[in-house]
Amino acid sequence: MLKPKAISQVLKQATTGGVKATLLLNSEGSPLAFISDSDRDARVYAAIASNIWSTFEKNGKNLMRDDNLKFLLVECEKGNVAITTVSNMLLCLVAKPEVELGILKAKTDALARHLEEPFQRMTTYTQT
Amino acid sequence: MESAVVSVLDSLIKSEEVKGVLIADEHGLCLGAKGIVNPNSAGFISAIATHAKSLHDDPNIQAPIIKIETEKLTILIQNNGNYTLAVFK
Amino acid sequence: MGEELQTYFNKLLTRIDGLKAVTVTDGDGVILIKSVSNDVSPRVLEPALSTTFSVVSDQASKLGLKKNKSIVSLFGLFQIVQFNHTPLITTLVADSGSNTGVLLDLGNELKEVTDIIASALSERQVIV
User: Does the keyword Transmembrane apply (chain B) (predicted)?
Assistant: First the structure.
């Protein structure tokens, strides 16, 4: 089992070098755990990120039946957002514009891999 | 988490003749850049490397190093499968 | 100018490995110019691709990171890179293995082109 505190510790590892926030969201878009400068920002990021994800996920299914959305990169004037899945949750990183997209994606992927295993085990356990 | 990339870039740029350095991932996205290199050139630089690689298909040979010489600079580019490194001297 | 523009767009598919479709649409998904490869689903031309991007881009612009510039969606088999070229939308559909960095660069290159298309459109409206 992954303790809530341990999850926050893992998320915190990513908030270096210009990454402003790291969030783990459930399938409804509610933040399960997050590191962010402000709670309010975290809720805004969470709501919008999960909306964007589900929209593109649907888009993709319409375009090509068997293909799944794996990663989203949202580029804005004053920052970038990376979103990917971890088990049945969403992982979202919000970064300042000086964080290059490559490193943002790499950090997101690394975090996702790190979190995937314990959460998969949990999901399997609760299903049996 | 990015410290490994940062330290590679730092150690390369320390060399006197190195004016710029860039590392791109397999998607052509910039992992890091220092010196005179524009991070936005990551896509273009990695495309050069992958195209050069496709010129010879032998998996036993190390990936080619592309050398671009301009009047003022020499640019060295190599792709190792996952990352592309560019050094501007 | 129309013919030159179409030639330029057609050439893009050969210039960039794995690029399958380029479309410039207005906010409603009406196609202004397109170049589509034979081996891609004609569904890439559906207005939904643009209209959903419009909605999502607006949401992304509310993240507190100023205006949304682009969104990259990576699927297993393909990727969609879309640009907010207000009032137009540029959509690139490519293989998942295509160089995303190059596609993002292309978007910036196309901004000049979409600006020309947009001003040509507004001139036409004034005359009518």
Answer: no
